Amino acid sequence: MSNTALLISSRIINAICSFVYVAWAAQALGLANFGYLLLVTTFVSLICDITHLQSWQCLLHYGTSFFEKKEFSKFHDILAFCIRSDFISGLIGAVVSFSLIYFFGGSLLHWPSDIQFKAILCSLTILCMNTGWSTGVLRLCNKFKYVTCYELITTTVRTIATYIGFVKHCTLDYFLFVWCLTQLTMFFSCTLFGVYLTKKSTGSLPEVRSIFSLKTPQEGMWKYNINTSVNQILEAIFLQGATLAIGSSLGPKDAAVYRVARQIGNGLVKPAQLMIPSLYPEFIKMRDKEDWSGIKFIINKTFIVVLAVSALVLFIVYFFGQDIISYMLHQKTTYGFSVLFILCCNSIINIMMVPLEPYIIMIGKVGNLLKIRIFVIFIYFSLIELFMSKWGIIGSSIEILLSSLILFSFCFHTFFVGIKDKLYK
User: Fold this and answer.
1) What's the pLDDT score for residue 5?
2) Does the pTM of the predicted model rise above 0.90?
């Protein structure tokens, strides 16, 4: 809870600044160009998410015991593997993004040629968007205060740069540059903290040749790294793919309304979601001690916090939702409040999975989680055109809520059965 409180403190500042700089960008660009800004950055972020490996989980899973036993040479081998996987996935992500924009930017995404060119330039940042290994070091060393520091640095850069663009009435090119600058700021600041903590905690850094070596320190590392990453990949497709689908079918304006409404909902429930980085390292330690009653206690306490946050979110959205989304978009929409309320309910379902997802990963049931995610995504994208043709953007919002309910039901059933077997076998 103390680590979560540290993360929340920075995210509160980030959320406040987000409400400000999103409104500045929308007012400076107008809803159509603001929609293209969101579509391009969403596309690049999606490609980043579906190609980058979650190496921080691999570092915690395989490196924690070596780190605690001070077997730093073995730990450096694990760390070098994670750095290598970050580099490879970044390179693959950039190539995939270039290729998709070149071949499908006009036919599938329906982007003008100038927007396609801007998106290709933004795709270069994918090379420097994965902070997996350095994030893992911060969490392993229990230095969550450094996460607060680099997020504050990043938020400050974005807010100041956006304000300049707002005052100077800058174009779409400038705001895309600000987004790229923000990603680079986060990468270099997080990497700097990771290097500092590694050298301070272990006395040295991994050798450069070990980073570019093809050696895998332990059998099964690539499989574990890919399996845990596929879960995040599917979640990214599920969440961000909807924005691109709406933009392709309904246009950039509706995509902007959907994306901003989802951002508001996620911002309101983000404090509860920040428990995941804190829970996962603790679950690993308690699993090694076979403290299943302790894990159950933590999950039950987390549910209480989540329910309290959910009640507060619904109160805020019901009374102030229309004013919030009108301010963010700088204009009123007839369906903005309905979309916001539905997506906030969806966010509440997602935070109910906060203690469940790291538990499922920790007990080795990632494969089952992947199968249900694939099933949900297949159903969602199979029916999205039908929902949008009948009810527009509200229909797509309802569908994503129903999809989240299916996923939550599976996660809760897996937890209930699994913890019962562990406690009473």
Assistant:
1) 60
2) no
